[in-house]
Amino acid sequence: MRQFQCVMMDVFTSVPLAGNQLAVFADGRGLSDAEMQALARETNLAETTFIIPRDPAVERPSGVKVRIFTVEEELPFAGHPTLGTATVIRGTSGARLVELDLKVGKIPVTFEDRPTGLAFGEMRQPDPEFGKIHDRAAVAGLLGLSAGELSSDVPIQTVSTGVPFAIVPIQKLSTIQKLTFSAQAGAEFAKSSDMKFFYFICRETIDPKARLHARMIFYNGEDPATGSAAGCAVAWMVKYGVAANDERVKIEQGIERKRPSEIFVAANKTVDKIVNVRVGGHAIEIACSTFTLP
Asked: Within the chain, what is the greatest distance between any pair of CA atoms?
């Protein structure tokens, strides 16, 4: 029988039993693609990651190889799995910089020690690609809202820093809190579009220190924290003046799931593009376990 060690993390939170859950397998060598996918279904979390250790001579220039799975598919990139997995790796190395080799490329995660004793990690995501601007009335109809309930001063637009999200700005906090959304309808919409998921945001927030209130609903339910979408959102924010150049702002998410999350984001604006997208937060270990397979 083969045994595989797994660590459970709560990501984008500094307290246990909040944020987004993640399972990290410390050594995925010997697992087939099908077995990794089956283990992701077994954990039944938004994402499960597998660290694939390699020779240090390979890891130094290329980063630590990591694969990311949802319950249905492998992803080229995802935010909270990147931060959570990098935190696990840092726990054994103590390094200030951890670089992950993902399907989307090498992603650096920089850690700052805080007085609380809990490190703050910040990943730099790939530079954003801005895609289609979507029709407000069509998206509102999909959500069961009127077009007037969506913001008119900023667009609904697809942005990708590895995974394409349609950023949907909603006017009122009360509207986004009561939002009901069919992930199946979203998947049908995506078939004829350039986006994969919707990221719903509102500039009215519960925490006055937060810049956005956010929700992300997909085929595995509602995500308590979506770091990949947060990177897309801050690129969108800086492009349209919702956040200033190089300003670190907070996104609150997961409150409707009773798993509040704090995601800190920033990006830079040059003459003609958005660059240096950073997404950060805390991650804490909550449990460890051993999986036994034939």
From this structure: 59
Instruction: Decide: 54 and 71 in contact? Cβ < 8 Å.
Output: no
d(CA 198, CA 97): 31
Residues with catalytic function: 47
129-277: CATH class: alpha beta
Question: CATH 3.10.310.10 occupies which residues in the chain?
Answer: 2-124+282-293, 129-277
Task: Please name the fold of domain 2-124+282-293.
Answer: Diaminopimelate Epimerase; Chain A, domain 1 (3.10.310)
Write out pLDDT tens, residues 9-55: 999 999 999 999 999 999 999 999 999 999 999 999 999 999 999 99
Sign for the pseudo-dihedral over CA of 56, 70, 84, 290: negative
Cβ atoms within 10 Å of 49's Cβ, excluding its own? 30
Rounded Cα gap, residues 284 and 21, in angstroms: 10
**pTM to 2 decimal places:** 0.96
